[in-house]
Specification:
The structure holds 2 protein chains of 2 kinds. Chain A has 9 helices and 4 strands. By secondary structure, chain A is of the alpha+beta class. The chains are: A alpha+beta, B alpha/beta. Chains A and B meet through helix 1 and helix 7 of A and helix 2 and helix 3 of B.
Chain lengths: 295, 228
């Protein structure tokens, strides 16, 4: 298509939007409402994912040592653990420190721990974190074979369940978003179909004059794109504002539930909303035109 | 210009619209297509425009086989054929000038050429002063002139007119017919489907009569029908 043809398409698209102003407002409203739901959903999903990530990063492993090994053997073992693939940090916790922690944990009710300093039943241990939480599962069986290791504990079972739970949360989020997107496309397609239906005679005339299908389609596609853009711009603004409010309010009332910081996530969300809104607008108009081009 | 060979058209619902039609219209001819409603006139037009495909036979327009054209190629066939309808089919929200120039925008003609050609054609059809009028501000005859201007603005080889005077009073009809004669005199082949007996009888041009999907008469300088 030549440049002059594009300017014709643009003026067609805009004059059509002005002419059917109520239809235009209805379509923009539909896109905006859908995208608001979508945006809220994206933010909830992103917060859930971050929360799941936080839980994952708290996964850690304790390596309990046999009582009879010497301090040299302990430092050799510490070195070995450090050099293992995927291990991020190793901290030595002697059994005295372990007992101290236990006392702190029970606070005032630690009477039953009294006198244990003499005959400490705890074991010396290394506390270990991996770079990726999942690597705990790979590293544990290797460590169990090392000399002087009595036991490796990492919440077996619980950890595996946590991983499959976060995976499930992500899958459900993606599935719901896909469903919402296709539902929105059909709503837009139906709204635009009314405009197209009103102009089916014009389309018919264009076909007789020898217009190609794309020549007929482009003004509608541009119209859909602009409707989608305006609608999602409104929704991006509104959702961003609401999220900002939520973050500041929750910081005060529920500090233990930290929301993802607004700065990068809102920009990413707005980008997605604009892209999706425009795609939905274009898809909608293309879908609604299909039937009328068969002449 | 227009060649039909052994054309049969049966619609999916079983209606036989055309039976074994052979027809040839030469370049520069002016031919009337007459016959009762349902005789097959509209089907014939649709076959020429590749709107329908023949069940059997071959349609050739300007040396191109039409019945095997790919959908992509059909718009380019239609650009060589001007089309005029009984109900004018103008864009209601566009001015006269926009309605005519649209046919040139479709073929992506340069602005310069559009600005030159559109006034020329409007002058030719006698609407020079009404280029910024809307179709609703025009009489039926004037609207049909706009439609004619749109049909010939790209200098088609063939002009198909489907009852172009069907909605017009006799005087206005004659104005349109004189215009068609002028267009024909400049070399455009014209095929006009019509029920207007007095026009056909007066013009004494080639008459192709269809009835029940067959050509029952084809004569030069003929009349609409023989009174029994």
């Amino acid at each position: 298509m030549k440049i002059r043809t594009w300017s014709h398409f643009n003026s067609q698209a805009f004059s059509s939007m002005m002419l059917n102003s109520w239809m235009t407002i209805a379509s923009i409203g539909t896109v905006a409402v859908t995208m608001i739901i979508f945006g809220i959903f994206m933010l909830v999903a992103s917060n859930l994912t971050t929360m799941a990530g936080n839980l994952e990063s708290q996964v850690e492993m304790s390596v309990y040592l046999q009582d009879e090994i010497t301090s040299e053997e302990v430092s050799v073992l510490g070195q070995q653990l450090m050099e293992l693939d995927g291990v991020a940090s190793v901290v030595y916790v002697s059994k005295e420190e372990g007992l101290q922690r236990l006392k702190e944990w029970y606070g005032e009710n630690n009477d039953f721990l009294a006198g244990l300093e003499m005959d400490n039943p705890l074991r010396n241990a290394f506390e270990l974190r991996t770079e990726q939480p999942e690597q705990v599962l790979d590293v544990a069986p290797i460590i169990e074979t090392y000399n002087g290791v009595a036991e490796v504990v990492y919440g077996r079972g619980v950890v595996e369940q946590l991983f499959s739970l976060t995976r499930l949360v992500r899958l459900i989020a993606i599935g719901l978003m896909l469903g919402l997107a296709s539902a929105a496309t059909f709503i837009i397609a139906n709204t635009i179909r009314i405009t197209v239906f009103a102009r089916r005679r014009e389309i018919n005339i264009m076909k007789y004059v020898g217009a190609t299908d794309w020549f007929i389609r482009w003004p509608f596609v541009i119209e859909g794109m602009v409707l989608g853009f305006i609608g999602s711009l409104i929704s991006a603004g509104l959702v961003s504002w609401l999220y900002g409010l939520a973050v500041t309010n929750l910081q005060v009332s529920m500090p233990f539930l930290p929301l993802v910081k607004p700065w990068p996530v809102l920009l990413v969300m707005s980008g997605w909303l604009l892209l999706l809104g425009m795609t939905i607008g274009v898809l909608g108009s293309a879908l609604s035109l299909r039937r009328f081009l068969k002449v | 210009m227009l060649e039909l060979y052994a054309i049969t058209k049966i619609y999916p619902n079983g209606v036989v619209a055309l039976r074994d039609i052979d027809l040839k219209v030469d370049r520069g001819e002016f031919a009337f297509l007459v016959g009762p409603s349902g005789a097959g006139k509209s089907t014939l037009t649709k076959l020429i425009l590749a709107e329908e495909k023949p069940t059997k036979g071959q349609v050739i327009v300007n040396n191109q086989v039409v019945n095997t054209l790919k959908p992509r190629a059909i718009p380019f066939l239609r650009r060589q054929i001007g089309m005029v309808f009984q109900d004018f089919r103008l864009m209601p929200n566009w001015t006269v000038e926009e309605n005519v120039s649209f046919a040139m925008k479709v073929i992506e003609a340069p602005h310069r050429l559009i600005r030159k050609r559109v006034p020329e054609v409007l002058e030719l059809v006698g609407l020079a002063g009404k280029s910024s009028h809307m179709p609703t501000q025009l009489s039926g005859g004037e609207q049909q002139r706009v439609a004619l201007a749109r049909a010939i603005v790209n200098k088609p080889y063939l002009l198909l007119a489907d009852e172009p005077t069907g909605n017009l009073d006799p005087d206005t009809s004659w104005g349109i017919m004189r215009l068609l004669q002028d267009i024909n005199a400049q070399g455009t082949t014209i095929l006009m489907a019509t029920h207007a007996k007095n026009i056909v009888d007066t013009m004494r041009r080639r008459v192709i009569a269809l009835d029940g999907g067959r050509i029952v008469r084809d004569e030069q300088g003929g009349a609409y029908g023989h009174e029994d």
